[in-house]
Amino acid sequence: MEKMYAGARLRQLREDRSMTQSELARLLEISPSYVNQLEHNGRPLTLPVLLKLTETFGVDTEFFAARDTARLIADVREVFDDNTVSGAISAGEVDALTTTLPEVARTLVALHRRYREAVENVATLVTEQGLDRSTAQQPHEEIRDWFYLRRNHVAELDAPAEKLAAELRLHPGEVRSGLATGLLERHGVKVTAESLGPDQHHFDPRRKTLRLSPALRPGQAAFRLASELALLEAGEVIDRLVEDGKFSGDTARRLARIGLANYFAGAVVLPYRVFLGAAERYRYDITRLSDHFGVGFETVCHRLSTLQRPGTRGVPFSFVRVDRAGNISKRQSATGFHFSRVGGSCPLWIVYEAFGSPGRILTQIAELPDGKKYFWLARTVSRAAGGHGDPGKTFAIGLGCELRHAKRLVYSDGLALGTGAAVTPIGMGCKVCERPACPQRAFPAIGKPMRVDEHSSSLLPYPPLG
């Protein structure tokens, strides 16, 4: 058995039950000094003590297992990379904080996010006098953070959505008709097809009529049907999740309802166990999954990033959607990959290269400054918007996982994944990136001195000092 140090979780277990170290020692039939050593990671949990804990408190052994703190470490590092925050902290201190005091670290990250929001609000109010304060709060960021903290998995909706899909007997290729029948039989809602201008669908609860744009592809139409069915079937659960989320205002709460309804829709159209089984069988081949379930590339990628049900987890993915200008319009993560809020994204990231090869799936092994490696794939998706002359939409979709999972993906076949791997060094954004020799750098790193000499030049846009 590998040595297990679980001081913080043991202390949490004891404090949640208002017990002293002496009382816990009596229950475990060990000395108080031994308990103290366990809680301060001076000694590992032995198998007899672990079994006694699980029997006494009714917790699973997984409760004491080492937890992946990569996401939390990245969040804490960003706090101290902020040039408006004084102080410095070493990598070892970050690791110690996140491992021994994870709740303190999360509180620190939450406070920093509130601080950044306040700074942005003040800046906006100063430069745009008379602007409504609520417009500066960017409520969509609240929703992204909420899903991020849940690792993009909402068990309260995923399980009932899967159950509903079984009750409606939805089968690939027949999902749209099955959902329309379910809406009519369960809720008396009639589905019609008619032109709605720029809108994709509209539901009239008084007339119990759901109108769909005929321009929608079958997969898109099914998703819109499922999103309205979500509010009818799981409205109370969605309302409770929104209430518990303590979002800042009415706009954020409405966006949260839409986001949760869309999550439920994805879980109905692509039921968890059925979809995970197909994903494993096809080795996460997105094109085959799209064909099998009759949905688009983006929908499949987004659903793949949600497969984190305890006991039956898929590959933990990060999902991102960006436009040509580098704006990230969607980002969800079940991994330790961190999307920076400071300084934009890295131009060396494969997601941006996808625009140069429309429709092709590109791959990249990317290494972050902390040495952690990720396997990324990216492809563009395009959507027409109206008739001739109307501008359409083109995005790049990125899906990434830790390199250790790459062999489970068909896209890694034929690639060197070990010491001979072709690795691209990327960062979280130029302003916080620690790579001084990057020729693609757009901004100097915050807090790092530059070499400025009027009598010499460099291939590097912002050469470091020394």
Automatic annotation (TrEMBL):
Residues 10-64 form the HTH cro/C1-type domain. Belongs to the short-chain fatty acyl-CoA assimilation regulator (ScfR) family. It comes from Amycolatopsis thailandensis. GO terms for cellular component: cytosol. The keyword DNA-binding applies. InterPro entries: Cro/C1-type_HTH (IPR001387), HTH_RamB (IPR026281), IrrE_HExxH (IPR010359), Lambda_DNA-bd_dom_sf (IPR010982), ScfR_C (IPR018653), TransReg_Diox_bact_type (IPR050807). GO terms for molecular function: DNA binding; DNA-binding transcription factor activity. CDD domains: HTH_XRE (cd00093). This is Cro/Cl family transcriptional regulator. Keywords: DNA-binding, Transcription, Transcription regulation. It comes from the Bacteria. It holds the Pfam family Peptidase_M78.
